[in-house]
Amino acid sequence: MEIKNIGLFSGAMSGMLWGLDTVLTSIVLSLSPFIETKEAIFLAPFVSAFLHDLFSSLWMILYSLATKQLSKVIEVLKTRSGKFICIAAIFGGPIGMASYLLAIKYIGPGYTASISSIYPAVGAFWAYIFLKEKLSKRGFLGLILSIISVIILGYSPDKIISSNYLLGFGLALICVMGWSLESVICAYGMREDEVSPTQALQIRQVVSTLFYGLIIIPLINGLDLTEIVMKSDIFLFIGFIALFGTASYIFYYTAIDSIGPVKATALNITYSIWAIVFDVIILRNAITIKLIICSIFIIIGSIMVSKN
């Protein structure tokens, strides 16, 4: 298989697997012990995100060992790039991923995936502001198209009175901010030192896991629920889901390396459509015309920005 075809296949797989990860995670959040008390319902997304990143970091360690990159990862941690990747990890993990899972809890995987898929466009805007990367008129039009589509998708007169719906929509937007800033900070930090995408991912997952485990979980009194979950049947299920998430990241970075970030991003953001597909197939949830149309326009807008 040619390098280009490998890149296209990897990009498509990254989007499909993240869509599957999203829907399976929504199932976990609806299971015991995450739903037994009001406190557990609130803590569920944080504990789930922590365990998801914990397993993902373990999967990445195994990957680094298999590809003999672990020593290089340790060396990168000592560099300026390593420090910026650590900062980016906080935006992508505790801020971005936790908000993503909270949004899934309140508005479901379909809406969350569609709204969050705007992050490449917002990332391009941050790159224009902080990295001084030029953004064409087409890029600005794509950004505006994505934002308008998200607003239309989020506006629902019959649900607007629900505080949970508004909260979930807001959390999905926080996820967009976290993920978009993560990519820009990583790009800024990796300019000086040669760091491979998988090495950066290894650092990201470990730092995110430590930040959750040492700061977030104790701060929100989530240690008891974490212990209960780790002793329950769904603990290994979370590890199984994290395998899909980790594979999605690896495919995504492989696509970036093979066909470049433009085509890789354009293929990766199709996870919003895949999430809707798996939502219908696995959870049997209803699908609306507005959700389909807005998702398509969000992806078109993001592609317009990404191809800038």
Summarize this entry quickly.
With 308 residues, the protein is mainly α. It has twelve helices and no strands.
Keywords summarizing the entry:
mainly alpha; 12 helices; 82% helix
SSE order and pairing:
Blueprint: H1 3-28, H2 38-66, H3 70-77, H4 80-116, H5 119-130, H6 137-154, H7 163-189, H8 197-219, H9 223-230, H10 234-268, H11 271-283, H12 289-306
Helix pairs in contact: 1-4, 1-10, 1-11, 2-4, 2-8, 2-10, 3-8, 4-7, 4-8, 4-11, 4-12, 5-6, 5-7, 5-12, 6-12, 10-12
- State Rg: 18 Å
Number of helices: 12
Element-level helix/strand string: HHHHHHHHHHHH
User: Share of helix among residues?
Assistant: over 70%
Which of globular, elongated, flat, extended, rod-shaped describes the shape?
globular
CA-to-CA gap between the ends? 28 Å
Domain EamA: 6-153, 167-306
Organism: Paeniclostridium hominis
InterPro entries: EamA_dom, EmrE-like
Transmembrane segments: 12-35, 41-63, 84-104, 110-131, 138-155, 167-189, 201-222, 234-253, 289-306
Structure description:
This protein is mainly alpha-helical and 308 residues long. Helices cover 82% and strands 0% of the residues. The chain has helices spanning 3-28, 38-66, 70-77, 80-116, 119-130, 137-154, 163-189, 197-219, 223-230, 234-268, 271-283, 289-306. Helix 5 (119-130) packs across helix 7 and helix 5 (119-130) runs parallel beside helix 12 (289-306). It comes from Paeniclostridium hominis. Residues 6-153, 167-306 form the EamA domain. The chain crosses the membrane at residues 12-35, 41-63, 84-104, 110-131, 138-155, 167-189, 201-222, 234-253, 289-306.
